[in-house]
Specification:
Length: 239
Amino acid sequence: MQQVFFRDLGLIDYKVCWDYQEKLFNEIVQQKLEQRNLPVSEQRTPHHLLFCEHPHVYTLGRNGDEKNLLVQDDELRKAEATFYKNNRGGDITYHGPGQIVGYPILNLDLFFTDIHKYLRYLEEAVIRTLKEYNIGAGRIKGLTGVWVDVESKSPRKICSFGVRCSRWVTMHGFAFNVNTDLKYFNNIIPCGIADKEVTSMQKELGHEVDIEEVKSILKKNIAGLFEMKLIEIATDVQA
């Protein structure tokens, strides 16, 4: 069972957190290079799982279309939001308070080398978490993410994904709408999908949800699916 360092970074600036991810990612890659002559069974590198929330920000993946951002710079300023292009997969998405953003930084060589399985496990962790609140969720073929009312004519996306994997080390991750202010999604075409709505746990249940409770359940589900042992440590990054 792999040990994974867990940190809850709280509300943290997007770029500060991105830089921190890059630091952890590069440290793992460097250690892998130093151990490249060892059998995989003898290699040892750290793993990390970060949870956080971000101030209002829109991010665009490396293959995304900037036309999916529907507002100009002055409108972004009025919304007190920022915009970043980054190096993850996926198109455009929104991060903000009330949303659990998860960044697993894992050496998949020590888990399994299958990026599709990796994404399905993360999706499954969210699906199982929602089940605890009697919210039926699932997947839509060909569309990465977790959706509510999958079998209906109007499925709604509740969790989006955008990851990077290089040398089998992951970064970036998922955005899970818990008590998210959904009006911010009106400024984008979320994930480049124009004909699907976005939702949150708060909207589906009709009341605000204890986000700390959701984090606890989600952590348990991620740890169980990946067969990892989470070790909670104090954060060493300045928000």
